[in-house]
Structure formats: C-alpha cells, structure tokens
Design brief:
This protein has about 220 residues and is an alpha/beta fold. Helices cover about 40% and strands about 20% of the residues. A five-stranded mixed β-sheet has the order 5-4-3-8-9. It catalyses: a hydroperoxide + [thioredoxin]-dithiol = an alcohol + [thioredoxin]-disulfide + H2O. Belongs to the peroxiredoxin family. BCP/PrxQ subfamily. This is thioredoxin-dependent peroxiredoxin. It comes from Shewanella litoralis.
Amino acid sequence: MQSLQKQTEAKVAEGRQKNPAFMQKVDEIIAQSKSFQQGNDALTLGQNAPTFSLPNANGQAVSLANLLQKGPVVVTFYRGSWCPYCNLQLRALQARLSDINALGAQLVAISPQIPDGSMTQDEISNMDFEVLSDQDAKIAAQFGVAWQVPAFLSEHMRVDRNLDLDAINNGNGAILPIPATFVVDRAGKVAWRFVDVDYRTRSEPDDIIDTLKALT
C-alpha cells in the first residue's frame, strides 16, 4: 500500500497543477506560520495530556480517562471531513487500525465539526474508531494545536469551495486545529507526537505503530 506521505504528495502535486497560484500562496502562508513557530506550543514528550470528554458522531460522550483504562490512546486532530488531506489520513489510519488495536491501543479522531456534521452516516459506519467533536477547538487549544485560520484561506474556502465553516463548526470557523497526532500512554503522558502547521503533511501510521510497540 502506498505510504500516506506519497498519497499527500500526489494530492499536493494535483493541487499545484490545477491551481498553482493558490498553492503558491499557501506555501507563503505556511512559511510565515513556521517562521512564527506556530505549533511550538504543542504538548511535548512526557507532558500530561489534557483530560477531555467529547461527543462522538452519535452524540455520546467519550472521555480520555475511560479510554486510558484500556491502554494507550492515539489522539489525532483533523480539520474536518471537507479536507481531502484529512480524509487521506483517516483512511490510512483505518487501514492500520487492526495493528493499532492489536497493540492494546485505541484511536480517536477529533475535529471542530458538530457531531451530526463530522462525517456522513455511511462514512461513520466504515470507521472503526471514535470520531469526536471539539467545538470551538477548545481541546485542540489545550493540546497546543489550535490555529487562527489566515484570512486568505478562510476566503478561499468560503468563495472557491463554498464551505461555511461557521455553520460546519457551529459558529466558530476562524479556529481550526493544526493537523497533529499524539500517542498518550496509559499514565496519560505524551509518548510521541507529530505536529506540523503545514496541513498538507501528516504523520505516518507506521511511526505510530512503532511507538506503540515500544510501549508494550
């Protein structure tokens, strides 16, 4: 199976071919964000992960504390089901979920979308992990990965993609999570993390699995 990096690189190349001016502007925004070290406030190794209780796609509360009673937890933040890079990542994680579960771990995916808008019912039924709703990106902020969306990107999503993030996120479309993934050990501490303000770059499932193997 093609690596997630190869899949995202192909998606970026496709975007550059279809809309080079837009992708050039995104490059500039990402470069500027990195120069301001956005994402450097994210939790580091050994820090305690913030406790949370968030609604899943069916509106039922899922808490980190309860999940940790069963073993390590992989917490991944994604922007929303409207993001093609996020969808590539979720599919890649789904493909390796049996390996994650075999190591005693569980996976949760968190976005700011309201519970009934996070994914379609068919998509939910095909995902064997919890998809949670973090409205206002409050938990993302506690993990240090909340990002003020630049005006250029907000305008692009509103005009060019016809996306109303305020409606999708129940009133707050200005804040999105930096796509980030954390492995939280049973003691509630961060054992591994991947954080990159470039939303076109994602962690590899293999790296997550290697970390989980080291925890066993």
